Amino acid sequence: MDGICLYDFPRPMNWRGVFAATTTPFDPALGIDAAALAAHVDWMARAGCTGIVPLGSLGEGNTLDFDEKLRVIDIVREALAGRAALVPGIAALSTAEAVALVRAAERRGCTGAMILPPYVYKGDVRETGAYFAAVLGATSLPCMLYNNPIAYGTDVAPEQIAALASRHDNLEAVKESSADIRRFAAIRAFAGDRLALFAGVDDLIVEAIDAGACGWIAGLVNAFPQESVALFELCATGERERARALYAWFLPLLRLDVIPKFVQAIKLVQAEAGRGSERVRPPRLELEGAERAAVLAVFKESVRAQRG
Hints:
By secondary structure, this protein is α/β, with parallel strands linked by helices. The chain has one domain (17-240): TIM Barrel, CATH 3.20.20.70. The chain is built from twelve helices and nine strands. It has helices at residues 34-46, 66-80, 95-107, 125-137, 149-152, 158-167, 182-191, 205-210, 225-236, 240-254, 262-272, 289-307; strands at 17-21, 51-53, 85-86, 89-90, 113-115, 143-147, 171-176, 196-199, 215-218. The protein has a nine-stranded parallel sheet. Mean pLDDT is 94; it is low at 1-11.
């Protein structure tokens, strides 16, 4: 068990393993495709994902209105039937709406919540701290703080994360997406083993587990769930040679998680894998031209190598 965090938490939430950051399937009219969403999360649960995270960045949460978010939660909860943790992303333009959403998620029987920074507004340290404190204080759900300064322009420093955890018992985990592997050690330096640390970018999963991550909020899992779970478990159990071989094959695909149009790219890969549609909601548009060709080339080469 080399590099994996082994400590247990007193609450029933199991912060370990592959948590799938799910895409949101849309029908031709760009409404939520309930049947496709239910089938998709069922497939990922059967593949061994220990958590499902709808309504995040990859789930196009910022294009869904409040009632649509609740509908997604209901569809995922019913499809999972308790087989995996349901941890919806909580984000909004305002603190009040984020508070309302996390309370609704708790009423709907979610297992936990992943709290994103506010959309659009990039607060300073005081404002960011007040926002997270308000959302954490509005629920008894076990919560994960999502730190992604690259996407959201708000960087929650390790010492600020530790300070929030010291005041809010229900802050139990961190999705670290700064792409700075040193952050894992820095959070541990301030918070010890108080928080479960999750890798938040796909192409650093092996390095993150070596640095002490005990979970992975994964994106390419939407098209390759068995491979994602296998990679995590090989790393977690110290089977380095097998893990490195699988990582070498998977890495070109995993890098699609960190490009600007990662939502479109991952949905295209899903569609090519026969597991969904590439439809996205505007202002996003489906990939075309050279961008589309580049993603398809990565997918086709990966499938060729896998079969070879």
